[in-house]
């Protein structure tokens, strides 16, 4: 099911055949460098897709796959996730290396943020970013998410970037 459409991308729900493409992405050490869980194995990825699908079923939002409209290729993930510890809603983005540097992460995240505020009616969304992850910090800045503080999440010290409804 399509959730969001942008100029170049579709954000949709997970489908049975996605594990293969997802393994190419979550199995890449460079992609996973700043992701607390690190490089994932195929069984871990299959279990994670099930959890992400389950969150979507329960809440109507989750972390979704992002595909290229022209090719149908699964290039990454973007979406919303409720942090169990605090109840805050986090926006996440993660893409295959071949798709970096094209503006895809910002394009999808902009649509996801609009969904968060206009459809889910959230008042605030956070992004949690390792201070060394400059590419991700740039995405947050492009989305006008503002640095608030460092916080302890996923057993790591991460920068908290936030955007609140205008
Ligand atoms: C973080 C991550 C998503 C950023 O990806 P990205 O491609 O740099 O970010 P964007 O999609 O916003 O692209 C911006 C870049 O594309 C370029 N670009 C090219 N064509 C563009 C277009 N049509 N529109 C916008 N930007 C374009 C921009 O100039 C910019 O490059 P620059 O940073 O060298 O100036 C990516 O590095 C990644 O997946 N990392 C691994 C996972 C990860 O760490 N996730 C974040 C966890 S907090």
User: Kindly, what is the distance between the CA atoms of the first and last residues, rounded to a whole number of angstroms?
Assistant: 29 Å
How many domains? The number is 1
Into which percent range does the helicity of residues fall? 25-40%
Which word captures the global form?
Answer: globular
What is the percentage of strand-forming residues?
25-35%
Note poorly predicted spans.
none
Q: What order do the helices and strands follow?
A: EEHHEEEHEHEE
CATH superfamily: Gcn5-related N-acetyltransferase (GNAT)
**What is the C-level CATH assignment?**
Alpha Beta
Tags for this entry?
166 residues; alpha+beta; Aminopeptidase; five-stranded antiparallel sheet; three-stranded antiparallel sheet; 4 helices; 31% helix; globular; binds coenzyme A
Describe this entry's structure for a reader.
This protein has helices at residues 18-26, 42-59, 104-118, 134-142, and strands at residues 2-5, 9-12, 63-68, 74-82, 89-95, 124-129, 146-153, 156-164. The protein is an alpha+beta fold and 166 residues long. It has a single domain (2-164), classed as Gcn5-related N-acetyltransferase (GNAT) (Aminopeptidase), CATH 3.40.630. The chain has a 5-stranded antiparallel beta sheet with strand order 1-2-3-4-5, with helices on both faces. Helix 1 (18-26) packs across helix 2. 30% of the residues are buried. The mean pLDDT is 97. Coenzyme A (COA) binds next to strand 5, helix 3 and helix 4.
Q: Could you give a quick summary of the protein structure above?
A:
This protein has helices spanning 18-26, 42-59, 104-118, 134-142, and strands at residues 2-5, 9-12, 63-68, 74-82, 89-95, 124-129, 146-153, 156-164. The protein has 166 residues and is α+β, with helices and mostly antiparallel strands.
